[in-house]
Design goal:
- The chain is α/β, with parallel strands linked by helices.
- It is 35% helix and 29% strand.
- The protein has a six-stranded mixed beta sheet with strand order 6-7-8-3-9-10, sandwiched between helices. Strands 2-1-4-5 form a four-stranded antiparallel beta sheet, covered by helices on one side. Strands 12-13-11-14 form a four-stranded antiparallel beta sheet.
- The two termini are 36 Å apart.
- The model has no long low-confidence stretch (mean pLDDT 89).
Length: 305
């Protein structure tokens, strides 16, 4: 298997506190790999270590066949990135920002700036960046990241600030980058349904640990049907379902929501039993497996235990 990115036993500590712990990750060439996880799970820290902006405490990173050391830098010419909020020259226009980046990256293509701006649908004329909306700045940051047509593109929350049409355009752009430019994309986002729409592989992080790496086709092929129950006391509801209705696969997601898998009980029976114990039922619905459900179930397992 040909990998654009391989991470082995990667760790990062600050003042003795480990924020990334023994992460192993493999990103295949020309795929879109989605990193998802709660805030503080280590996504941005991993991206910064790939870019050599942070030095690992332990482990190895291999990018496009090259093992990265603290002094590595030539590999960065093959990477486009936007990590956290894009840092731009606020008094310059979008064109001037990209022209400056082209000089820095030694890009000789006279059409590169216009093509990048067209790809992200950004038309600003002579307006300085300081007058841009957040969404416009995001577009410009992405234009700068893709202007070199990189082999590896690293994007941290790239759709922040974009409206629904902008998100749809970005989805099309990222798919186009992998197909037309043979680009590999590592992306993080809190908007799970968008990751679900574009990603080939998912890496789920929690507390600095990669708890699962799974193909989206595997998640979709499960096509699990389950019951989602919203009540005023999920802990009590889960206890009743397990001990009185003998349901063996019940997941408490938060203080109000319970997911019931492989249920042999009808919804009416479940509702009647819970009401008999003076629980309020706000909603009960049949659902099918999705990335959001898979993510919530996976990240909540340890907490429920």
């Amino acid at each position: 298997m040909d990998y654009a990115l391989q991470i082995s036993n990667l760790s990062k500590s600050y003042n003795g506190i480990e924020v990334v712990s023994n992460v192993n990750m493999k990103v295949k060439r020309e795929e879109i790999y989605g990193m998802i996880g709660p805030n503080g799970s280590g996504k941005t820290t991993i991206m910064k270590m790939i870019m050599n902006l942070l030095k690992p405490t332990g482990g190895e990173i291999e990018v496009l066949g090259e093992k990265i050391t603290s002094s590595s830098h030539t590999y960065l010419k093959k990477i486009g990135s936007m990590i956290e909020y894009p840092i731009l020259y606020e008094d310059l226009t979008s064109i001037e920002n990209l022209e400056l980046h082209c000089k820095y990256m030694d890009i000789q293509d006279n059409h590169a700036v216009d093509e990048a701006l067209e790809l992200v649908s950004l038309k600003t004329g002579d307006k300085a960046v300081k007058h841009f909306s957040m969404g416009m700045k995001q577009r410009l940051g992405i234009a700068r990241a893709i202007i070199t047509k990189p082999e590896l593109l690293i994007l941290d929350e790239p759709i922040n600030g974009l409206d629904p049409s902008g998100i749809k355009e970005m989805r099309s752009l990222l798919k186009r980058m992998t197909k037309e430019y043979k680009c590999t994309i590592l992306i993080s986002s809190h908007i799970l349904n968008e990751i679900e729409n574009i990603a080939d592989t998912i890496g789920i992080l929690k507390d600095g640990i990669l708890i699962e790496e799974v193909g989206m086709d595997t998640i979709h092929n499960k096509n699990v049907e389950y019951i989602e129950l919203v009540t005023n006391d999920a802990k009590k509801a889960a206890y009743i379902l397990e001990n009185e209705l003998q349901l063996s696969n019940v997941k408490q997601m938060d203080q109000f929501t319970v997911l019931i898998y492989n249920s042999h009980s009808h919804q009416k029976e479940i509702v009647a039993k819970l009401i008999s114990h003076h629980l309020e039922i706000e909603a009960i619905n049949k659902r099918h497996n999705s990335l959001e459900n898979h993510f919530l179930t996976t990240t909540s397992r340890e907490e429920i235990r």
